[in-house]
Amino acid sequence: MLRMENLEKVYRTDFIETHALNQFNLHAAKGEFLAVMGPSGSGKSTFLNIAGLLDTFEKGEYLLDGQSVSGMSDAQRSKIRNEKIGFIFQSFNLIPDLNIFDNVDVPLRYRGMPKKERRERIEAALGKVGLSGRLQHLPSQLSGGQQQRVAIARALAGSPKLILADEPTGNLDSRMARQIMELLEQINTEGTTIIMVTHDAELARRARRQIHLLDGRMLDLEIHTNKALVDSRQESA
Hints:
Blueprint: E1 2-12, E2 17-28, E3 33-37, H1 44-51, E4 59-64, E5 67-68, H2 74-84, E6 85-89, H3 100-111, H4 115-128, H5 144-157, E7 162-166, H6 174-189, E8 193-197, H7 201-204, E9 209-214, E10 217-224, H8 227-236
Helix pairs in contact: 3-4, 3-5, 4-5, 5-6
């Protein structure tokens, strides 16, 4: 699904050169749920931006769904991003003046989808996250957890192969955070690859695999979760 080989990303000013990613390697298989951890400045945001085709890199190779992204034009990257990748952000990134239906509709309109297909996708996605009765509400009329559900529905409506989640529970209380994680786990079991950046070790353990970044490199430490054990603990909780 996603393969990065010896990726390098350098930010330069007049006096400073910062290697945000340095010979970075990562393979994520189709259907994986991967948690990415690391301290501030370790390269997590840079990795997400490159994975989501929001930023470029100097050296190395990045294959997304078997296709190299090197040398693509902005238009090509934008098209692939819109068709194959869903984004979930800590700050929700909803448009405050649009109702929930229209917020989910925005990326579908960009694709040029017919109105009927867009409506079917939007209603199905909002139903999946439990917000069928809130289509005409504005974001300000929803709780933080509900707004994050809208953000997830917006990602799901495009039927992405990959979801990139940047601290998706960072602005939520513990109860809402658990609900969002349960929803992400459900989406993952249906075949969508999820890569989640988080500072929360407890949430990271719910992913099937955990990796740790430091100074733009992936550490040798890599943890594979015993999913059966996690599930049994959740059932007994």
